[in-house]
Each structure stands twice: as structure tokens, then as C-alpha cells.
Amino acid sequence: MTTALAEPAVPVRGRWTAAVVLANVGVFAAWLGPLQVLLAQQSEAIAPGNKEFVFGLVTGIGAAVSVVANPIFGAVSDRTTARRGRRAPWVFAGAVGGAVGLLVLSGSDAVLWMLVGWCVVQLFGNALLAAITAVVPDLVPTTQRGVVGGWVALAQTLGALVGVGLATVVGGVGGGYIACAAFLLISVVPYLLRSGDQALTERTPLVWPEFWKGFWISPRRYPDFGWAWLTRFLLNLGNGLGTLYLFYYLQDAVGHSDPDVGVLVLTAIYSLCVVLTAVTSGAWSDRVGRRKVFVTGSGVVMAVAAGVLAVWPTWPGAIVGAVILGTGFGVYLSVDFALLTEVLPSARDRAKDLGVINIANSLPQVLAPAVAAPVVKYAGGYPVLYGLAAAVTLLGAVLVRQIRSVS
């Protein structure tokens, strides 16, 4: 094996972890600022009488791009033989391309251009995410992955907070997109300066039929990988059903007078709770050598949060739901990521295999709008939507117990 494929044994330093976290924050800010605020506002401005459909169309097609892009870019980065390493070139290209997509969105005044801009953001953002996710199993020893996973888990939450903050504080929809683009470019600089990325010195000849077949990982041959994929899919689908229409939930069900500020406040509360639980639970999981009990417990807590939003559609209820959801999601993000890195089939294909896992993150974004829009409009509204989110999340939490090779 080349150095790039060896199982890591040297602990990583805090500065390296901070650089990886910052790059993750940048890509999630570029996604979640638009998803939580800007795309909703833009949809309402372009099609005020049909805002839910436009918002669901744009986010759904963008998520479909994500489903395809993440594993493909992961597989390409696994085979990249650049002098700077396998991952760093795609972190750079993803940041530049994602910023271009955000700039397209900043000037969009029609649904078509919204679609084009958001698909570009998803395409290149997933190139960045596939590469930056794979650096953890590339360089972090197993005994350190709970802690590092906890810090990386914070990136999604901090990215939501930064993205929503930029979208809310910077004036206008266009200004919000430009601010997110600038932050994305800045966020990857520390990682690119000290990536520690190992160059791949030999590459297996590319045989296209084998390349495409590699994206199917048999659940019979790798059952734990299959269960890990399914449970992550269910938990992310439940989370997607619960958070996709938060802006409209505050506007239409809660009756909040300023829903974009409301989203910012809830995101800040949620983020604080994630911060308080993510790193501590990851370190605790490393110490006791157990993963599944943490993931199952966190899923149950997240289901309770969705139940609160279903039965208590008020501003105090939304705050309580944010506290509970953040507490559960912090534990889930940190420990589940560490669990996933321990069921990967091959060191040679780490980014591709994590890309297949990331389909379980992005595919729910395709399905959630298709399910949520008719439920909200025709099948009982937000109580039914959040009840469904709770049920799906609880199912995923229970099925984590089927993973056998990780305790």
C-alpha cells in the first residue's frame, strides 16, 4: 500500500482539525443559508402564490444533483494523483465552483436561473464535501475519530448559523448570496495551506464497467455498511421533513411576525445545544469504545423534538423543539460519523464509499419536498408533517441496532 492508503496511526493536531472544520463550515454555510432563508425568500418574491412548489422544485432538483455528484466526485478524488494529494485539488475546485453558483443565484429573477444557480452550488459543493469528508479516515486514527467527528459535526451546525446569519444580517437576497460565496472561498484557505494530504503514487487502470459497478456496495457482502446507509437515510429523511419548511412553519403555523429572524434565533439556540453535546459525546464514545447506543439514543431524542413541533405550534414550542433537536442532533452527528468510518469496505475507495453514504444525506432532500408539500397543503398540515418526521426518525434509531461489527 502507498502511504495514502495506509491505516492512519499518528494523531492529528488541533490546528489541522480546525482547518478541516472551517472548510466544512464554509460549504454548509453555502448550502444552509440559502436553504433556510434565501431560497424561501426568493421563491416567494418570484412566485408569491406558489412559493411552496417553487421552493420544493428548486431544492429537490438540486438535491438530485447532490445524490449523483457526491459519490462520483468521491470516486474521482480516490483516483487523483496530483502532487498536492488526492483531496486538496477538489476542495479548491469545489469552493470556486460553489461560489460561482451562489453569484448566479444572487442575480436570479426567474425560476430557471434559480435552478441553474442552485444546481451549480450543489454540484461543486459536493466535490468539496466528498474530498473534505474523506480526509478523516485518510489521516485520523480510529481512536481519535469520535473527538474529531464531534468537531466536524459542529461544522454543519456552525455552517447553518453562519449561513443564516449572513442571509439575515446582510441586506437583501442578493447580498446574502454574495456574502455566503465570499465566506466559502475564505473558509478553505487554512486547509489548503496545511492539508497534510498524501499523494497517491499508483493508480489502478480505469475500467469503466468496473468503475460504475463500484457504486453498488452489496448489503449481503457488507451488511453493516448497508444498515449504516439505511439508518442514516431514515434519520436524515426525518430531519429533512422536520426542517425543510421551517421558514413557512414559523410564518403560517406559528404566526411569527418576522420569520427570517425567527429562523436565525432558532438556529442559534439549536447550534448552542449541538455544540454542548457533539464534542463531549464524541470523546465519551471514544473513551468507552461504543457507538450504537449513542446513535440510537440521539435518534429517540430527535423524534421527541419533532413531536413537540407537531403538537405545540407556538413560538415557545418552537424554542423547546430547537433545544431538544440540537441536543439529539449533536450526539448523532459526531458519533454516527465515527461509526460510518469503521464500516467502510476499502481503504482504496474511502471517498467513493463515503460518497455512497452521503447519498443517504442528499436523497432525503429529494424526497422530503415531494412528501412535505402535499402533506402541508392537503393531508393535515404541519402537525401531520412533524408527526411523520418523528416516526421516520424513530425507525432509523431502532434499526441502528442491526449493525454488528461496531459495538
From TrEMBL:
Coiled-coil positions: none
GO molecular function: transmembrane transporter activity
UniProt xrefs under Gene3D superfamilies: MFS general substrate transporter like domains
Domain Major facilitator superfamily (MFS) profile: 224-407
Entry annotated with the keyword Membrane: yes
Recorded topology in the membrane: Multi-pass membrane protein
Compartment(s) of residence: Cell membrane
Entry keyword set: Membrane, Transmembrane, Transmembrane helix
Protein name: Major facilitator superfamily MFS_1
Membrane-crossing segments per the record: 12-33, 53-76, 88-105, 111-136, 148-170, 176-193, 229-249, 261-281, 293-312, 318-344, 356-376, 382-400
PROSITE patterns reported in the protein's UniProt record: MFS, SUGAR_TRANSPORT_1
Major subcellular location class: membrane
Family matches, as SUPFAM superfamilies: MFS general substrate transporter
GO cellular component: plasma membrane
